[in-house]
Each structure stands twice: as structure tokens, then as C-alpha cells.
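Whiteboard transcription, Tuesday session. T.W. wrote the C-alpha cells on the left side:
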């Protein structure tokens, strides 16, 4: 995943001047696989550790990512890439692959 995104990884939700839209590798199915993997690992670790505080923090992390981080990132990506990004949004899932065909 990190090899696929390469230099397009960003420390913030802002895009870079030379930012390219990555739609291959795991990004062909999911728009934010890095967040997916991070949250799955955090939830799994909290379950393995049987630590309810860690699980609560994992749920909080998922909430923050889904409702604050991703919308800001996607807004910036739509501004930079326009209709190309909007079409990409229609055919891919946000955090998990789409189960139904795109419109």
C-alpha cells in the first residue's frame, strides 16, 4: 500500500503541487486503505489484549477518521482532480470495497 501511494502520501489532508491520483494497487478497491488497515489493526490488538479502553479508543479513532479526516481529504482531492476523483469515488468504497456494482 505504501509502495503504491509513493510520494503522494501526505502528512495532512492537503494535496501537494505534484500530487497524482493513485487508483491502482489496493486503491483500485478502496479510497483510504491506510486508514482501513490502521483501524483493523487497532481493533484487533484491543481484542487480543482484551482491553476495553483500547477498544473504546479504536472506536473513537474510527469515528474521527470517518467523520472528520476523510471528508476533509476527499474535499481537497475533489478540488484538485475534479470529475476524475468524483468518478473514482463512485466506483470505489471509502474504507471497504463496494459490495454492489457502481452506478
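and on the right, the sequence the group agreed on:
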Amino acid at each position: 500500500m505504501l509502495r503504491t501511494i509513493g510520494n503522494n502520501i501526505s502528512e495532512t489532508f492537503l494535496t501537494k503541487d505534484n500530487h497524482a491520483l493513485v487508483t491502482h494497487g489496493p486503491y483500485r478497491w478502496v479510497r483510504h486503505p491506510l486508514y482501513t488497515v490502521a483501524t483493523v489493526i487497532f481493533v484487533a490488538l484491543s481484542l487480543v489484549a482484551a482491553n476495553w479502553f483500547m477498544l473504546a479508543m479504536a472506536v473513537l479513532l474510527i469515528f474521527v477518521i470517518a467523520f472528520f479526516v476523510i471528508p476533509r481529504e476527499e474535499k481537497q482531492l475533489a478540488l484538485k482532480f475534479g470529475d476524475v476523483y468524483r468518478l473514482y469515488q463512485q466506483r470505489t468504497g471509502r474504507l471497504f470495497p463496494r459490495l454492489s456494482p457502481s452506478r
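Someone added at the bottom: The chain has a mean pLDDT of 85.
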